[in-house]
Structure formats: C-alpha cells, structure tokens
Amino acid sequence: MDLFRRVPLSSLRVFEAAGRTCSFVQAAQELDLSSSAVSHAIRKLEVATGLTLFTRNTRTVTLTTRGQLLLGFVQRGLAEMSRGFAMATTEGATPLRLHTAPTFATQWLVPRLARFVGAHPDIELQISASTDYATFERDDFDLDIVYGQPRPSPHEQMPLLIEELTPLCAPALAALITTPQDLYAHTLIQSDGQSVQWRGWFAANNMTTPTQYGLAFDRSSMGISAAVDGLGVVLESTLFVERELSTGKLVCPLRGVSNSIRYVGHHLVHPRTHRNPEAFMRFKGWLLAELEGSRGPGEQ
Questions:
Q1: Which residues contact 33 (CB under 8 A, 6 or more apart)?
Q2: Max Cα–Cα distance, the chain, nearest Å
Q3: Rounded CA separation 155/79 (Å)
Q4: Which CATH number fits the domain 163-261, given the four candidates 3.40.50.720, 1.20.1250.20, 3.40.190.10, 3.40.630.30?
C-alpha cells in the first residue's frame, strides 16, 4: 500500500501507453506529450517503485519481465476506472458498444440485426467498424469482433468458428468451371486484406499460383460484389456470402472437387468485467447462437 501511494497516477497512464506501444515516441503522440516528458515520467515511476520497467536501446524500448507483469495489472486497473467514470456519469440506460471488422459487419452481422433488435428492444446497440483493434481503455467499447489473430492483451479472447474459404462466382461463370484447372482461364478477384489469399488456395490444391489476378480490392465486401456482377471468381469465406448463396447470386463451382481452406477467421475479444453485464451477456449469447446456425455440414 505504501509503495502504491508513492506512485503518481499520471505516470501509470504514461507507462500503459509506452508499454502497450513499446515506444516512447508513440506514447508521447497518443498522450499529447513530448518524448522527453514520457521518458521522465517512466524514470520517475521506476525510481518510485524500485523496478526497471523497460530495457532501453538506441532506437527501441522493450518491457522487462517485471514490466510486462505490471502492465497487465495497470491496464485492468485503468480500464476499471474508465468504466466506473462512464457508469457514474451516464444518465439512463448504458448503450452496448460493439467494434467489429468491416466485412463481418456488412456481410454477416447487419443482415441479422433485425432478429436481435426484435428480441431485445430494451438494449441500445452502437456499432463501429474498422480494421483497427478496439482499445477498451480509451474507446469504451464493450466487445470487439476481430478478424484474424487478436493481439496480446489482458482481455478475454474467444475463437468464434471455423470458416471455409472456397472459390465463388456467378452461376453463368460457374458453368465454365468444372475443375480447378479451369480457374487459369478466368479473372481471379483478390481481397488484399485476407490472411489467406489465392496463393494459399492454389498451394493447398498442389497447383501453380497465377502471376496475375485481374482485380484486387482492399475490402472483401467489394470483391464479393464484383463476383456477383460476374466480373470473376473470388476466394471468400462462405460465412460472408450466405445471402448470395441462398438467393443463387453466387455458387461454389469447385466445392467437392477441390480442397477448401478451413481456419478460424474471427475472434471475440472483450474486457473481463462489464459496465452493462446483462446487455453484454444477452448479445454474446445471441451472437454465438447465430454463428452456430452458420456452421456448414461437418464443421466443428
């Protein structure tokens, strides 16, 4: 207790930013301080605690083992204080704030929201979509649906489901594609943001990867739209094209005659404590139930 009383709260905020980014410069930019002020605050904290928190090199800083240990506790403490202030200053019901990967939002979540809103009309839901990670300590989000592997953090992380990546195209184009080799004669639509791209699919099928694709997008949703319009073949998760498959706008011409890619595409990340626990648990339960309904035959 005596040690904690000697530690300035402001230095803990500086330590959290510097430890999370492993950069005094980035921490300074984030907190609107000078780099020398950040360095001074860290040194003051080290003197007050008697701990060496960072290993300093000419160009970089890295957390020591004790620094890594302390960072997790500091992050949880600051998050709890932030949520406490939010609860104390909010009048009325607290909205549930969700951050999500963009394609997950547009292609899967939004088309299903009517069912959640209808079943839970008392929950105010606020949704933001970007490729960034949610920073719960600053942005006050309640949960984050992350594409790919989440970054290390003290928060809960849950893999959502195994997704299937397979070639998809409009029915008219599918009539010309009966074997994997037929793909060489068609435009392949590349989604640059995918963790598994055409190169991985061709490797999984023991085929040579084409040197050119024809079309590339930085959002999967644009690649899906291009495939619906007959512009080529897109490699995409069937999770995101359930509507297009059910209406016949897209088909899987090589399912059953080629190797699909199966991987955990998304994770649910959230703090260990919640400012609105009832709304959080109801949304999480609904989300997992909807995803269970999206599982394909034989998927775990």
A1: 14, 27, 41
A2: 76
A3: 10
A4: 3.40.190.10
Fold match, 2-89 / 96-160+265-293: no
From the CB of residue 108, how many other CB atoms can be counted at a distance below 10 Å?
22
Lookup: tokens for 112: 């299903």
Q: Into which CATH architecture does domain 96-160+265-293 fall?
A: 3-Layer(aba) Sandwich (3.40)
Nearest Cα residue to 289 out of 119, 143, 107: 119
Residue-range domain boundaries for the chain? 2-89, 96-160+265-293, 163-261
Cβ-proximal residues to 192 (8 Å cutoff; 6+ apart), any chain: 216, 217, 218
Instruction: DSSP for 244-282, please give it.
Output: HHHHTS-B-TTBTTBPPEEEE-EEEEE-SS-SSHHHHHH
pTM listed for this prediction: 0.67
Q: Which CATH class is domain 2-89?
A: mainly alpha
The region, left, alpha or beta by phi > 0 then psi within -120 to 50, assigned to residue 256 is: left
Per-residue pLDDT in tens (0 to 9) along the chain, 300 residues: 466 677 778 888 898 998 998 888 888 988 889 989 999 999 988 888 888 999 988 778 899 999 988 888 888 888 777 766 766 665 556 788 999 999 999 999 999 999 999 999 989 999 999 888 887 767 678 999 999 888 887 888 999 989 999 999 999 999 999 999 999 999 999 888 888 889 999 999 999 998 877 788 988 999 999 999 999 999 999 999 999 999 999 999 999 999 999 999 999 999 888 877 889 999 999 999 999 887 654 343
Comparing C-alpha atoms, which of 255, 248, 213 is closest to residue 234? 213
